[in-house]
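Progress against Task 2.4 (sequence-to-structure conversion) is shown through the following example record, which the project officer requested during the mid-term review.
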Amino acid sequence: MITNLRLFAIMIALSLVAVSAQAFETRAKAAYVIDLTSGTVLLNRNADEPLPPASMSKLMTLYVAFEALRDGRLDLNEELPVSQHAMSYGGSTMFLDTTDKVRVEDLLRGIIVLSGNDACAVIAEALSPDGTEAGFSRFMTKRGKLLGMTNSTFANSNGWPAAGHRMSVRDLAILASKLITDFPEYYPMFAETEFAFDGRASKNSRNRNPLLSLGIGADGLKTGHTKEAGYGLVGSAKQGDRRVVFVISGLDSNTARAEEAEAIVNWSFRQFAEKTIAQEGQAISQAEVWMGRQSTVGLVAAEDLKILLPVLADKEIAAEVVYVGPIDAPISKGQQLAELVVIRESLPEVRLPLVADRDVPVGGIVNRVMTAAILLYQQFVGAPAGAM
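Structure tokens generated for the chain above:
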């Protein structure tokens, strides 16, 4: 049976209160904000709508390139040729031509800092299963699905306007989070503000991310703009132990993008704070035990239980212990038996593990006979199972 126990006692002991944070009124057509440290989604507007991502889709090319470096299929000092196709791209470029052979490390910085369309195509052709950018785009689409990016389809490596080239802002946030966590050795490149490649890109030498110089913990990742897509940004910022990843898309100007991005970062860190609601080993509740030497087992926090809460407050947190019980003996100390489900207004529920506070061996013959007798009696009188 499913047993739900309301935690009146723990709510009183914690003296924690929660209230809806003031909703962020975004001007973006689509927006997604996640506190990466706790996994809490702070803002969701049209998060799963496939939209033209412009240069923000270059992050997928970078992810595939970083995987190739990790696997030894690329080397940072390896020099790659520039094809006529790569050279033909306009927009933001490294001003590459077919006489060049360019180090992979320079190409990566050319994509991250300069948003080089040509640099993306060079990487794409080098890693493509068939040597073409189109083949690389099909590969990225399949790889993205494996990463959980279910609303992303790539027609090229750089976000150049093309029919069917689409990503959702949630997918972009998934991709940004994986770049941060999977490739910490390369992530510092995203905070670089300038890259003067070979002295030839003086007109395109500075990072367009408007947050990097503001001193608010911003350290990535990628801007994007086309007429169809509007102005967008995949961003991340870290303050203290917390990291926030956000994506905005469809803004009408560079200024609006800069203002919106800064406002989202400030809102994310100022309106929410991480709270410890229980210490490791703290007793939370009890669970019923079936055929054990004891009829109950204590449920304790497996580790310090931390959740993200709005900083303003006017009422107690709603929480429940949920487990399937009675729980069959034997039970080992530290075995996860239940979850603490915390309900937060305006935020998703959070489920935290609870474990057994001690071993509970199987009961002796007397215990088992008594338990069976109680069960038979309950069935006879119509009492609910588990009501011992």
